[in-house]
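Milestone M4 deliverable, item 7.
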Amino acid sequence: MDTNFNYVHVSASERLEEFTKTKLDKLKDRYEFLISAEVFFKTENSTSKDKGRIAEIQLSVPGPRIFASSNEENFEIAVSKTINDLKTQLQKKKEKMQTH
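Output delivered:
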């Protein structure tokens, strides 16, 4: 699966990319219809010190694209929560595809 990483007001991190790729590879193994992924890492200037690290992932699949985003205190937690949201959406899509 092709994975593109985009950084908005964040410096690139190979460790973060590897962490995200590992999580996405697990999704690819489970949902073979995945085509590609666009991953965005952003920082948000907020007054709250708890959050501000945003991970957005957009998956290309047959039909409409699937998107999820999380805003957490660090990128690893944001990626994990985003992946969990995507799993839910992918499971629904897989069930819908099986009924057709």
